[in-house]
Amino acid sequence: MVRPKKHLGQHFLHDENIARKIIASVPEKPGLVLEIGPGTGVLSKYLLEDSAHDSFFLEVDRESAEYLTQRFPLIVPRLILADFLDYQMDLFPETARSLEPMTLLGNFPYNISSQILFKALEHRHRVRTIIGMFQKEVAERIIHKPGNKLYGILSVIMQAFYNTEYLFTVSESVFIPPPKVKSAVVRFTRNERENLQCDEKLFYRVVKTAFNQRRKTLHNALKPLTAEIRDEAGLPFLRSRAEQLSVDDFILLTLAIEQRQS
């Protein structure tokens, strides 16, 4: 049985203690658990052993999928050969249970970890929990609050709908091959905000435009969005910088821009 090669920027976790810590962070009632990119199955085997977890496994790499089916025969009816970024989540699984809440879990490939989060956001009505391995720098950006230089686009957008927790740092030595950076495990738990009470697409534009020129005040950074607004007197936070605004502040700012654009 040949171990699959690294693919899509993924570094395979081989440390059993770290694997157990990740599995221990899964909530008691996780709903359906979908592991993204199981690779060599270091997390999968614990999910398969625990009958309390109704788990499925989404793997894009055929070599890894073959390895998994040979090593863990029980995984066969639960293994889906597909790319998570292209997968139709509304069809998962293709039964009446497709309305059940979900937990996403995985040692996420670093080069698509942000895209995985954005895809999860699209299905936040079902995805109640996300537990993922990220590059440490990305993990720190996600969990930081306003007033910190690490606070940015991903912080605001994820914290709008999820409570974020930095669980623990992971050494380079627990992966094959070892990455050149440290990693970290982050847990996201769905908060009580059902919607933003503003135009969601405009909210994302405001956040991204504000942080794209984060050294400028919002008065200057948001000119692409506010150029046609004659009266800026009522727009809040224009003398602030993006990193100073909370999620609620960005919602208020978006509402003010939305009202003046209509």
Please tell me about this protein's structure.
- A seven-stranded mixed β-sheet has the order 4-3-2-5-6-9-7, sandwiched between helices. It has a two-stranded antiparallel ribbon with strand order 1-8.
- It is elongated, with a radius of gyration of 20 Å.
- The chain has two domains: 12-190, Vaccinia Virus protein VP39 (Rossmann fold, 3-Layer(aba) Sandwich); 200-261, Helicase, Ruva Protein, domain 3 (Orthogonal Bundle).
- The longest helix has 15 residues, at 247-261.
- It has 262 residues and is α/β, with parallel strands linked by helices.
- Helix 7 crosses helix 10 (247-261).
- The chain starts with 11 loop residues before the first strand and ends with a helix.
- It is built from ten helices and nine strands.
